[in-house]
Amino acid sequence: TEQLARMRALPKAEVHAHLEGCFEPHVLAQWAQEAGIALPRPQERLFEFAGLADFLHFLDWACGLANTRDRLAQLSYGYAKRLADSGAGYADVIFNPTHWDAWHGRLPAMVDALDAGFKAAEHDGLPPVGLCVSVLRTQTGDAAAELVDQLIAMRHPRVVALSVDGNEATAGRTGPRFADAFAKAGAAGLRRTVHAGESSGPEGVWDAIHLLGADRIDHGVRAIEDPALVALLVERQIPLGVCPTSNLVLRVYPSLQDHPVDRLRLAGVPVSLNTDDPVLLGASLEGEYAQCQAAYGWNDDVLRAVAQTSVDASFANPDIKRGLR
Ligand code: ADE
Ligand code: ZN
């Protein structure tokens, strides 16, 4: 439609998306068939999730099928293609090594395979992408420290940040456990982005800021429950990578009318719009803008400001950022 075309035309970046959320159903069905593995449910209902825990469990199954270099490169190329189709000029994309059974103990090979897809994409004129490598909430502090040591040893130019994702509800308070690893990553020049305020309340966001040194918060929406926290986000201009469709599909909020993204924006918190797990959750970047426009009556100035926030909040280098104004 004309409205989606307008959303595509906004100069913007995506700062919160997971490669684990980019599998096409027919591709998974084909890989499963080739491996002689049954689908967990019929293909038409493959992407029906009961909530975050069920969703994360599915990621392990899907990622387990991506067991060759070509499959990873196909996935990363496909993400860059979606980005271009949405009119974005850059993305920080998250992947979490724990989900990828076939690649355990082979992080450098995994990053190289994803990098090959992104390089091919750039060669074809698709947007550049930075990688955020993620710790899972349920891992130990030692496992997080080991991941950081590997990232520092690799110094791969594609890797821009350390991340933490997964389910905060089952892992309890994880900020203290990962504080050392995040401090070391920061000192080594990696940026830091932290899932919080999705499956945790405001306390997860406080920890992300005070214990993990977060440059950006993934989701962060439940910060709305604590006015002092909202004030801190505004004062420090810490950006949130908000994913409205994800929050509805995974049942964090029942509707956009209940979702706090516009209240956070009006309070002065830097908010961007993102897809989280675009294919699995049925989200597109231009669609997120269009739905917020419709739900909150955003005019062109607001849309442009949110899009600009996405660029400012990204870990893109200054040259790329300048090109996205
Ligand atoms: N991994 C992929 N998507 C996620 C989400 N929405 N929350 C936590 N971990 C995730
Ligand atoms: Zn996420």
TrEMBL record:
Pfam family, one: A_deaminase
PROSITE patterns noted in UniProt: A_DEAMINASE
Single GO BP term: purine ribonucleoside monophosphate biosynthetic process
Domain Adenosine deaminase: 11-325
InterPro entries: A/AMP_deam_AS, A_deaminase_dom, Ado/ade_deaminase, Metal_Hydrolase
Record-annotated membrane-spanning stretches: none
EC number annotated for this UniProt entry: 3.5.4.4
Keywords of the record: Hydrolase, Metal-binding, Zinc
Cofactor: Zn(2+)
GO terms for MF: deaminase activity; hydrolase activity, acting on carbon-nitrogen (but not peptide) bonds, in cyclic amidines; metal ion binding
NCBIfam families, A to Z: aden_deam
Family: Belongs to the metallo-dependent hydrolases superfamily. Adenosine and AMP deaminases family.
Protein name: Adenosine deaminase
Source organism: Rhodoferax aquaticus
Gene: add
